[in-house]
Amino acid sequence: MEKTTVRLEDLCKRFGDVLAVDHVDLVIQPGEFVTLLGPSGCGKTTTLRMIAGLEVPTSGAIYLDGQDYTYTSPEKRPVNMVFQAYALFPHLTIAENISFGPRIKKLPADQIKMGVEEMLRLVQLEGYGPRRPDQLSGGQAQRVALARALINHPKVLLLDEPLGALDLKLRKAMQLELRGIQQRLGMTFVYVTHDQEEAMVMSDRIVLMNKGKIVQIGTPSEIYNHPANEFVSRFIGEANLLKGTIKQLSGECFQIEVDKDIVVTAPAKPGMAVGELSITSVRPEQVTVYSSAEGAPQDWPNVFGGTVKSAIFLGPIIRYHVSLANGQIVIADKTATKGQGGFQIDEEVLLGWETENSVVLPA
Predict the structure, then answer these.
(1) Are residues 18 and 162 in the same domain?
(2) Are 324 and 305 in contact (CB under 8 A)?
(3) Are 234 and 241 in contact (CB under 8 A)?
(4) In this predicted structure, what is the pLDDT of residue 1?
(5) Residues 6+ apart with CB under 8 A from 160
(6) How far apart are CA 85 and CA 145, in angstroms?
(7) Residues 211 and 78 reside in one and the same domain
(8) 217 and 91 together in one domain
(9) Do 216 and 353 share a structural domain?
């Protein structure tokens, strides 16, 4: 068997009548940062807990570095886990918290001391060893929990929404810190979150789950730009979804009738054919809004008239909601430029996007 850090084969977990994890197959290579992403109840945390040994699979197998660990107890697995609740021992100092694992293993005292100092440097908490957990901020406590897991030198670090308790600004800073630590160590991280932006920032690959199944696996760019279906397109970022019928194939493009006056041109998708219902996904930042006087590029087939219904200032961008002739709302993001006026509510505009930015999905 090929040696990989983590291999899940046909993994299932049932709680009574509920199939929480439904025949999951996944391979994670050494040194990867892989995020299990999805809404609440999709099976991501249950999958992580099975890798950790905290849940026993109903069926299937778990391999770590090519060895079968499906039914091995948690303490005998080459993994460590960091939880959202950091669970630091309040009566121990920071140094004693970090050294807890090595002391249980009865490692030499000088080796433990060197390990603790190394971990404190790694998580940028040098000099914090004598403090108690109640003297730390949330971000510092999260780093101590990380150091306590890393000092055991696991092959795989499992992280279950470890940043969930932090405020937004600190959370964003810790995302970059965690990613930096992972890259410096070259360690395999398996991360669980429901936050799609967090997954996009940190991951080498994202495993998007829904209703216990893996829906799509890919790099952040692949999943964002080439969603496998409507669920992926909705869950990852904002998307305009235009429902219609594929009317013809012209060269390498579909002509999709959304309404009698709205026909969208999109690159043909393998496996889909004329006559099928479809959904065309277009990201807001790929939609351009023009005043009717300006006119849109003549070589764009996807140009439609509409009326501005709202304009929302979001700092770097203005988000427009434009109503097409059939009442369909299309969202368009325009860079906010100082000194330049935007479009007004009820203004008649043209909006358009390049053909290559249309992604056809099965309805």
Answers:
(1) yes
(2) yes
(3) yes
(4) 42
(5) 45, 48, 49, 81, 82, 83, 84, 192
(6) 9
(7) yes
(8) yes
(9) no
Is the domain of 199 the same as that of 278? no
72 token code pair = 């091995």
Q: Contact 115/105 with Cβ under 8 angstroms?
A: no
Beta pairing partners, 11: 24
Tell me the two tokens of residue 61. Answer: 């197998």
180, 81: one domain:
yes
42 and 100 part of one domain: yes
- Residue 277 and residue 300: Cα distance in Å, rounded? 23
Q: Report the distance separating Cα 74 and Cα 174, nearest Å.
A: 27
**What confidence tens digit (pLDDT) does each residue in 248-293 have?**
999 999 999 999 889 999 999 999 999 999 999 999 999 999 988 7
* Same domain, yes or no: 182 and 262: no
Please indicate, yes or no, if residue 50 is contained in any of the structural domains. yes
Residue with the two structure tokens 């940190």: 202
**Residue ranges making up the domain that contains 304:** 238-362
Residue environment code for 275-292, b if the CB has 16+ CB neighbours within 10 A, otherwise e:
ebebbbbbbbbbbbbeee
Beta-strand relationship, 302-313 and 348-353: antiparallel
Residue with tokens 């304009």: 311
Chain CA centroid to CA 339, Å: 36
The residues of the chain scoring below 50 in pLDDT are 1
CATH number at residue 299: 2.40.50.140
Compute the distance between CA of residue 134 and CA of residue 93 in angstroms, rounded to an integer: 10
What are the tens digits of pLDDT across the range 175-190? 998 999 999 999 999 9
Contacts (Cβ under 8 Å, ≥6 apart) of 137: none
- The total number of structural domains that make up the chain: 2
Residues 6 or more apart whose Cβ sits within 8 Å of residue 346: 307, 308, 309
pTM of the predicted structure, to 2 decimals: 0.90
CA 243 to chain centre: 26
**Spatial CA neighbour of 80 closest among 108, 102, 58:** 102
Structural domain ending residue among the three candidates 212, 234, 256: 234
